[in-house]
Amino acid sequence: MSQISTVFKGMAMGMAEVVPGVSGGTIAFITGIYERLIFAIKSVDLELFKLLGKGQIKKVWAKIDGNFLALLLGGMFLGIAIGVFVISWLLENKPIAIWAFFFGLILASCFVIGKDIKVWNTGTVVALLLGAVLVYYVTVAVPSTGNTALWFVFICGMVAISALLLPGLSGSFILLLLGMYTYILPKVKDVLSGDLSGLSVLITFGIGCLTGLLSFSRLLSWAFKNFEKITLAFLTGLMIGSLNKVWPWQEVLSTRINTKGEETIAFTKSVLPGTLAGLESNFLYGTDPQLGMAIACMAGGFILVLGMAYFGKK
Fold first, then answer.
1. DSSP code at position 198
2. What's the burial of 81, exposed, middle or buried (CB within 10 Å: 0-12/13-18/19+)?
3. H or E segment to which residue 176 belongs
4. What gap in Å lies between CA 81 and CA 207, rounded to an integer?
5. Which of 32, 49, 178, 305 has its CA 20 to 30 A from that of 236?
6. Strand residues in the chain grouped as ranges (E)
7. Contacts of 64 (CB under 8 A, 6+ apart)
8. Which residues pair with 268 in a beta bridge?
9. pLDDT digits over 57-107, tens only?
């Protein structure tokens, strides 16, 4: 049962990473595997390669928590494959409902993780506010135009994967800010559909991801070991700040044409349901706030996280 659970947690992380604004790190935190994941990644070091060189495969597998990582990564790849098609469709056809659901998920996550901080002092409060302000600023930043050169794709991979490890900071949203989301995501979809023309881009992006993953996991594991409560407060602040990005009622301020010649959202701002209803037109989101459905989806996301937290502890 625990193995199946790990696969499903990986699937949830993978699907979350497809969505600009929702972090796989948030899902890892909700499901209680965050620290285990960080320390498993951090275990890839010089000692590991020495063991590998000696042919001590069992020790290598045990050192990296191999069973856990294999199940989680398998689930993540499956989740990404599902997310590229299913989540993409929901974002294009039911944007208010899917964002309301994610808003409920993250709001509940703030509560679940924040309550683990038993003692609030100056350090934890400052860390919470710093995290919230940092991510809120990121959510209102204007996306760049991007760069399709392979060196920039590599850097984007490093930055995006670092964001994956931070609850509240979405790797997909970082790609959006760098102007690369509408370049990388279609490449993934094309390769999954059998078109290998973008494979070199994805390989370069993957190498960048691996480099960032091994580097940033060491910083996070050090922070957890030495400043656990402050780190938890900072990560909770990151999620609070991200609520602006997943607010379901958005006024689309500008659009752009993606690599396939389709019109997509470039930049939005959060508005109240009444304000949305008063707009003359609004690309993709429309002007119907769909209040009842949005509240139901929020409640569903909120209850789901509480349930996951409860049964995770069991």
1. G
2. middle
3. helix 171-177
4. 19
5. 178
6. 250-257, 263-270
7. 40, 43, 44, 48
8. 252
9. 999 999 999 999 999 999 999 998 888 788 778 888 999 999 999 899 888
